[in-house]
Design brief:
Elements lengths: L6 H10 L4 H8 L3 H8 L7 H12 L17 H4 L5 H6 L2 H21 L8 H4 L8 H12 L3 H6 L3 H14 L3 E5 L6 E6 L6 E5 L4 H16 L4 E4 L10 H18 L2 H8 L7 H11 L3 H10 L5 H11 L15 H9 L1 H12 L5 H8 L6 H5 L4
Parallel strand pairs: 1-3
Antiparallel strand pairs: 2-3, 2-4
């Protein structure tokens, strides 16, 4: 089946990755004149070939090939220029690929929503509050998201807690995407944009880690900087003082947001010794990781650095998602978890109102159009 992809964008995508026509022809085992015909508009690749080009070689979402003009997708390394060379050296090609996908999803949002200048978003409503004291800012963000401590305690599981926070943040105008990164030590990243900032989460991490990453990356957006979350914080030391301070501030925001100081003080009343049972009970009650609680205790000098290091080393596997927790049985539920209900509903609304075709819908959702009808039945 011919795809009728935009010839200009086929050329743009190839040149962006610095592939010559002979090289890409060799990679996909096609004659050079066939590649040329795709790029001059006299012919078009099949859907299967376009998928290979998009995902295996050009590293952009399928939807990009149907835009009227080449999108403004920056090089991931340019987008993340705050990171030190040390960090880029250890970021895998797969993670850079995920950042490309995030940039592509931002372009899809522009196509689906247009540059509407919507002021009813959390990052605009609180744009003048980013210099507030962390405790005050966390209180304002909680009020905006509408989830109280009492509601947080009532979440039935870590997974349901993540879904609730994600839903509230998407209602605040920040779309959240997920995928399973090959590099399990990268927890996620955020990409700022005047209208469509996004958060991208590593689905290979445990739900407790996904919750922390979600809030940490929300802080990046509120502070107006692109960010990436690495389980290993040693790269902080390689950053400029200004950027290091921002990362520390984002960590403090996430900790204070998920377990405010007054909660810490209340839970510590009458307790002098901390053991596994204390941390486990606290974690289950507030649906946060034990390591978050541990960090909060270190911040208020209730434990020593040696005690902190001891427990972190003991619990470091808590970051990763156990095999029995991982999805994979239902393709549609997994796909919906990855793209997010908010983005899926937005795309389907455009499709049902006739603004985009079923093929275009599949391209925005990064699925084959044959799955569209079934996936739509999963939306509430």
């Amino acid at each position: 089946m011919k795809t009728y992809a935009n010839a200009k964008i086929l050329k743009w995508a190839r040149e962006r990755k610095q592939f010559s026509i002979p090289l890409i022809a060799k990679k996909i085992r096609k004659p050079e004149n066939e590649i040329i015909s795709w790029e001059d508009g006299t012919d078009s690749p099949s859907y299967a070939i376009l998928e290979r080009l998009a995902y295996q070689y050009y590293k952009v979402p399928l939807a990009v090939f149907y835009f009227p003009d080449p999108p403004n997708i920056e090089n991931p390394k340019t987008k993340m220029r705050r990171l030190p060379d040390y960090e880029f050296e250890r970021i895998s090609p797969d993670t850079l690929h995920m950042i490309n996908f995030g940039l592509g999803y931002q372009q899809s949002l522009i196509r689906l929503l247009g540059l509407t200048n919507n002021d009813n978003t959390i990052f605009k409503a609180l744009k003048n509050e980013h210099k507030s004291h962390i405790h005050s800012l966390c209180s304002l963000v909680r009020q905006y998201l509408g989830i109280t401590i009492e509601q947080q305690i009532k979440f039935t599981s870590f997974e349901s807690a993540f879904k609730a926070w994600r839903h509230a943040i998407e209602l605040g105008g920040i779309y959240t995407f997920k995928d399973s990164f090959e590099d399990k030590f990268i927890s996620g990243f955020s990409l700022i944009h005047p209208e469509y900032p996004i958060i991208f989460i590593n689905n290979s991490n445990s739900f407790t880690r996904q919750i922390f990453t979600l809030i940490h990356e929300l802080a990046h957006i509120l502070f107006g900087v692109n960010g990436i979350s690495d389980i290993d914080d040693r790269y902080f030391e390689m950053m400029s003082q200004k950027d290091k301070e921002i990362e520390i501030k984002c960590n403090r925001f996430a900790g204070e947001f998920l377990v405010p100081i007054e909660i810490i003080q209340s839970e510590l009343r009458g307790i002098n010794n901390f053991d596994d049972m204390f941390f486990t009970r606290f974690s289950r009650k507030y649906k946060i990781s034990r390591i978050v609680i541990l960090r909060r205790l270190l911040d208020i000098d209730k434990i020593t650095n040696n005690e902190y290091d001891f427990y972190v080393n003991k619990w470091n596997r808590e970051y990763f998602r156990p095999k029995h927790e991982k999805s994979g049985g239902d393709y549609y539920l997994t796909r919906l978890a990855y793209i997010g209900e908010g983005f899926a509903k937005l795309a389907y609304t455009n499709y049902r109102s006739g603004k985009i075709s079923n093929v275009e819908l599949g391209q925005h959702l990064n699925i084959n159009s044959k799955h569209i009808a079934k996936l739509g039945t999963y939306l509430k």
